[in-house]
Amino acid sequence: MLWQITAIAAGIGVVMFVLTRHIFWSAGFTLFAFNALAIITGQPFGLIALSIGMTLLIGGTNVVQHRNRLLAALADRDWRRFLNAD
User: Fold this and answer.
1) Exposed, middle or buried, 17 (CB in 10 Å: 0-12/13-18/19+)?
2) What pLDDT shows up at residue 81?
3) Tens-digit pLDDT profile for residues 1-46
4) At what angle do helices 23-40 and 45-65 cross, to 10 degrees?
5) Backbone angles phi and psi of 41, in degrees to 5
6) How far apart are CA 56 and CA 9, in angstroms?
7) What is the pTM of this model?
8) How does DSSP assign the chain, residue by residue?
9) Nearest-5° angle of CA 84, CA 36, CA 70?
């Protein structure tokens, strides 16, 4: 539907992965970039709502999948382990 914005966001995601080497954070940044670009370029409300909804679904699934490690890292105040959650 928004192939130009998707291509730009994917490029941003690849750059973030090369810089961070963490798929968890580069994917999150890619989804954020996609939503920001959809809003900035003035896409219809339905497409923006759909993209934000899909982002919440994907992000929520990822957090649920890694919740034990994330909660343990937060409880131990081990920020390095939290930020390296892959």
Assistant:
1) middle
2) 63
3) 688 999 999 999 999 999 988 887 888 899 999 999 999 999 999 9
4) 170
5) -85, 0
6) 17
7) 0.73
8) --HHHHHHHHHHHHHHHHHH--HHHHHHHHHHHHHHHHHHTT--HHHHHHHHHHHHHHHHHHHHHTHHHHHHHHHTT-HHHHHT--
9) 20
